[in-house]
Amino acid sequence: MASQLSRIMRPDDANVAGNVHGGTILKMIEEAGAIISTRHCNSQNGERCVAALARVERTDFLSPMCIGEVAHVSAEITYASKHSVEVQVHVTSENILTGTKKLTNKATLWYVPLSLKNVDKVLEVPPVVYSRQEQEEEGRKRYEAQKLERMETKWRNGDIVQPVLNPGKPNTVSYSQSSLIHLVGPSDCTLHGFVHGGVTMKLMDEVAGIVAARHCKTNIVTASVDAINFHDKIRKGCVITISGRMTFTSNKSMEIEVLVDADPVVDNSQKRYRAASAFFTYVSLSQEGKPLPVPQLVPETEDEKKRFEEGKGRYLQMKAKRQGQTEPQA
GO biological process: any one (predicted)? Predict the structure, then answer.
């Protein structure tokens, strides 16, 4: 089963330099994933459901997309466990004047089917027919790995980003730290009253972009997004706070932690909770689109120094992985 979405990129999809926001692409990726996974989960007779986004694996932005280009988003179901479905998505940009096409993104998303009668109830997923025997075993390994990572992330996400009243010196964490407060309305939600995952990702990318721009004061673009974990649903009427802070800088990239907290202001029985979290990586570009050096982050507190070292570890791990992939095969 596969599906495809296509849309031309407009000026309101991009920054002042004409580069399409990473959040716009992430929102399209999630829309394609939601369509195909909801179709699959309703492909057999039984209780009707809607597929809700649980996790997005690391997503690399391989090439910038520009205003006037057409984004083609194709989605395919590649694995199903008892209660979740894996969707792999490819994004290609097309210059409709020259016909040139290039791959810009590859992403893997995980959805769970929620009953329309009770959105707190997770239903079973219909089985997937695999084209070759190894696909199911490979998919099961990916499922177990992401399940373990989701649990680890959930336990370490109790941290709260406190508002900064007096921003510090340039290149410090407090100087670029940013927050966005958003009241969840009907246009943000599915027909069943909880927020589209793509809407949340777009807001997360927006906040990360503000942090990166404040730090660099140049044109910045999304380079990659580490796994985005959706810890809990966000319902219509909630006030969400999306907070971003710089955690690490290399010579030409910067890592920004983004946390989403939901406050159910119309429901006194539920307290504020962590809804989603991720690390975004940005790069700084010149007017010609060439990478620029990034001002080095100056961590001040012990917590900031600890987060810097953790970010450095993630950076070195990913750098080693990329180098391993590019080495010639014997």
Answer: acyl-CoA metabolic process
